[in-house]
Amino acid sequence: MKPLTSLNILRGIGAIMIVVHHANSDVIPGIPEASGLTGFILWRIRNIGWSGIDLFLVLGGFFMGASFFSELRTQGHINLLRYWKKRAKRIIPSYYFLLIVLAVTGATGFIDFSSTFDTIRGILTHFLFLYNYLDQQPNGPLWYVATIVQFYLFVPLLLTVITSAGKRWVTDSFFTITWIVVLTTVLLRVVRLVTGTHQANDFMLTHFRTDAIFIGMLCMYMFTNRHPLVERIAKHPWFSLTISLLLIAPCMFFPRKNSFMFSIGFTMLACGYGTIILLLAEGVLEGATKWFACFGILSEWSYNIYLWHYFLPRLLGKPYAHLQVMIDSHISFVSLVILCQIAIFVLASILVGYCMTALVERPVQQALTKRSN
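The chain above was modelled as a monomer; its predicted structure follows.
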């Protein structure tokens, strides 16, 4: 696709948003508490950072839709095995390598060696991508990997079942399918709230996040079928961008566990990011994306940036901690201290993301591709 560069910029921005969201005392020793205007701005930026995951989910759905709709039109079915192999080559090498490093170093203690059962459970929970349901601590950020893998497994299966019932039902009626899924997902979240069973980490559960994936796929469906709504969005780009930013804005003020965000806020985020994706796909924001071109470079490394960033302080150990503490002790301006410390954390995340992509992800992908050929 011609607009792929712009969407890659969006992917790079999403990765940095998540890194900045985690830039707190857990990963930056000695970071001071910000107050006043500095604190307000910092917390708004950190808060919106968690929605980088929602951006990734919508983007994932968008590109997932590109694969599925193309195959359904040309072949009449989805080649499940080929799709799963392609996704596995992208996701598994870096993820498994990270798990091995964390297990060997004991950086997070995610494997409990107190008993054989607990040891096996810890290993299987993580290596089989069941982490978001069975063990949400202490490897918090890895929940997204489990969620996206579950989507990659079950969404193609669902579409295959629907296609077998009616060959053109998916390609002709995906609007209906999407809104059934979206309304069902919102209803499940609302029931969770009303029954008083809502937990702080429920946002990790795949069945509560399905709307984002399908809204992303719907955006691709509308884009490829030249739906009138896409034409309207492209015709009024700045109005559409304003609406999308208003849909995204609540996440600057509310955490994911907030009742508003958990009920309809996640769906609003997906619609907001979906609108931005369509604007970029249509090429109407091409001038604005030039200001963010540097983020396009990060796109290739975004997966490994996300995977490794949260664990870097524990893996890098004392040298990293001493550097951060030294900045705090040698700079008197609180705002500058925070800026420098976050910058070091972000740069370290980018560097490690690049290294893991170059040294692990690409070589393993190339080796697997050669073997399959």
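The chain has a mean pLDDT of 90.
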